[in-house]
Structures are given as structure tokens and as C-alpha cells.
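Title: Prediction job returns without error message
Component: structure pipeline
Severity: low
Priority: P3
Assignee: unassigned

Description:
Job completed but the reporter wants confirmation the result is attached to the right record. Sequence as submitted:
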Amino acid sequence: MIPDQTPVWDRKHDLGQHENLRHTPSPLARLAEPSFKRQSAILELGCGVGRDAVFFAKQGHHVVATDSSVVVIQQDKKQFSDSGVGFFIVDMRKDLPYETASFDVAYANLSLHYYSHEMTPKIIKEIWRVLKPGGIIAFACKSVEDVHYGNGEEVEKNVFVSATGHVRHLFSINYAQQLLIKKFKIEHLDEVEEDYNGKHSNIVRCIAIKLDSV
């Protein structure tokens, strides 16, 4: 059983556990942004404290930033009221509330790794749907090489639920490839070591282009 992560993240954001990240764009944002066409329409899924959404807006893009946490969306609206970013509550487990072929970019930094093996491909398919032809998906997820591997109960292969209810679905390079097969052409796929919020992390990063048909 994979618990709902919204209450977990509401609590984390209410405690300000990621506030120190708010004004510094992530490594994935810096890696991926040069591949976006100018003035892209970007959908961010799991925007958290809004750091990457605001970074993209400053580069001239049009950004819709979403998260399932009511707490963090309220914080983002207050903190970045003059950023031009639209912040909205969206649950990725449901169909995305956007028209087909609405966005040039779908961006998800450390937000796709909370779901089951059944749910994750459905999310990827929805991302494919809302992207324009030739649109870009850019995402990063914790790796099977991460220090958190084995932390908690393994409820599915490489999916762990900690004692506090925090889910980690750890990705491999091969798993990322399988998720995108026949839907996207991979342009960049690697595994790197990063410092995330003061802790060592192993992360799989991917940038891929939408194919015309599934």
C-alpha cells in the first residue's frame, strides 16, 4: 500500500523544511533550460517551493507551476506574487486538467518518484498528452544507488515506504528508458551525485522529446 504523499508534504512545508532551497534553482533546471525554445509554455509538476518555476520565468518562459500540497502553493503565491508564475493545486494521480498539446515543456524535478509501477506510466502518458508535438519532458528522480535504498518497507520493487510514510520509488537508468519507450526520444539520460538539501543524493536525470505517436 502506497500512502498519499500530500499530507506528508503539507507537514514538511508547514515546518519549512525546504525553505532554504526557495531562491536557488536546481541543477536539473540549469541543465534543462538551454534546451527549451524561447518563451516556452512550461508545466511544472511538483513545484515545491517554486524555485525552478521562478527561474524559468526569469528566463522569459511562461510557467504553470503545480503541486498537490495546498500549503506550499499558498506559500508560493505569497512569496512570488510578482513573478508572473501561475501556481495551482494539481494531483498527478488524476488526469491533468489541461488541454491536449498545451505545453512546450513538462518539467518534474524530484516529483515523479512517489508512485506505484501502475501509476507512474499513466502519469507519463498524461504528460505526453499535454505536450505539443516535439515538446520536451525533463525530470529527475532519486536513483536505486541512493542512500535511501532500503529505507523502510519495500512495497513494490524499488518502492519503499519509510516509518513516517514518506514514499521513495527509486529509479534506474533502465526504468527511465522503459517509461519513455515509444513515447519520447531520449536526448539526455545520466545518473549523478548531488547535494540535495544538505544530504548526499544519487539522481537519475532525463531530457526527452515527444514522439508523434504512442
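Comment from assignee: result matches the submitted record. The chain has six helices and ten strands.
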